[in-house]
TrEMBL record:
This is Fatty acid hydroxylase domain-containing protein. GO terms for cellular component: membrane. One of its GO terms (biological process) is lipid biosynthetic process. The chain crosses the membrane at residues 75-99. One of its GO terms (molecular function) is iron ion binding. Pfam families: FA_hydroxylase. It is found in: Membrane. Residues 173-307 form the Fatty acid hydroxylase domain.
Length: 338
């Protein structure tokens, strides 16, 4: 079996002596001499050869990855994205479905609902999910099937060693920053007269968003917003696993942002400059006339370019109303009735 796993070793002058496993000695001995300062691909077909090439034992995760992916093509591995996206689109919003149903029945979670006058039935939410799955089957899935050449072009790898946490976290952070900045400008285009009327109005059919509505959009919007998502890995390519994780996290973030609930215990509350559900909900509430809160993840673009003024004004006004109401209730509570 010819194995695609490989290890990248970059030589430095003087040209180092490369230690080869017995399997590699014959093939390398007959190969032409390479110039100095070049990248050498050292293939290996077994766990033992991989350990020999890495100069250490494989970790448990690397062994699992090797056993699973050794005989599979990179295209096959890339197409796992279809499965992951399906699972995220289908499963991640389910807790929000139970929250919405519990709130409508017993009033639980009312205090966290951003637009409490809006209620969604199970039928409403399932209808949204069906529309999203239709878009998934007709647009997202086929797009994944034909976009593999772009993954090859930018150099996303699938071999060993697996990326460490210290490698993945900075890459994911860069991906979120690049996506957020690029998405901001694409989103602003969608709120031009032509962009909104012909494309973006579909997404704004939900003036009070729900989790399943995060990917609910016109097919052209789905395609165009794929560009910001792909730009990060294109600029800073990493491992296939990092790419999978990025796609999943980006969709989970979008679902949380469209949840319609502002939970104080959400871990995203501790992320600096993070927008979140309350921030994006205002954008949907205003609707087609909205010229505020365009950013997908963070708030710095809206602040820098002055597109959060309406949101900040309304938020300040609501805080003043709440404070005035508290003072009024406190005053009335001190008056004795006859």
């Amino acid at each position: 079996i010819t194995n695609k796993h490989s290890l990248l070793l970059i030589s430095q002058p003087p040209l180092p002596q490369i230690i080869k496993s017995p399997r590699q000695q014959n093939s390398v001995a007959n190969s032409p001499e390479k110039p100095r300062n070049f990248t050498i691909m050292i293939p290996y077909g077994t766990v033992e050869e991989a350990s020999f090439a890495l100069g250490r034992n494989l970790t448990w995760l690397e062994t699992v990855w090797f056993d699973y992916s050794a005989t599979k093509s990179d295209y096959y591995l890339y197409c796992h994205n279809i499965l992951f996206l399906f699972l995220v689109f289908s499963l991640a919003p389910i807790p929000l479905v139970f929250v919405e149903l519990a709130r409508s029945v017993s009033g639980w979670f009312d205090r966290y609902k951003i637009q409490p006058k809006v209620n969604y039935s199970l039928s409403d939410m399932f209808g949204c999910y069906k529309d999203v799955m239709k878009m998934f089957i007709l647009v997202v899935g086929p797009l994944q099937l034909v976009s593999y050449p772009s993954i090859q072009m930018i150099g996303i790898r699938s071999g060993l060693p697996l990326p460490t946490l210290s490698e993945m976290l900075p890459q994911l952070f860069v991906y979120f920053l690049i996506e957020d900045y690029t998405n901001y400008w694409v989103h602003r285009f969608f709120h031009s007269k032509w962009g909104y009327e012909n494309i973006h109005r579909v997404h704004h059919e939900y003036t009070a968003p729900i989790g399943y509505a995060a990917p609910y959009a016109h097919w052209a919007e789905v395609l165009l917003l794929g560009i910001p998502t792909f730009m990060g890995p294109a600029i800073a390519p990493g491992h296939m696993i990092t790419f999978w994780l990025w796609i999943a996290l980006r969709q989970i973030e979008a679902i949380e942002t469209h949840s319609g609930y502002d939970f104080p215990w959400s871990p995203t509350k501790y992320i600096p400059f993070y927008g979140g559900a309350e921030y994006h909900d205002y954008h949907h509430y205003v609707g087609g006339q909205s010229q505020s809160n365009f950013a997908s993840v963070f708030t710095y673009c809206d602040y820098i370019y002055g597109t959060d003024k309406g949101y900040r004004f309304q938020k300040k006004l609501l805080e003043q109303i709440k404070e005035s109401s508290k003072k009024s209730n406190k005053h009335n509570g001190g008056i004795k009735s006859d």
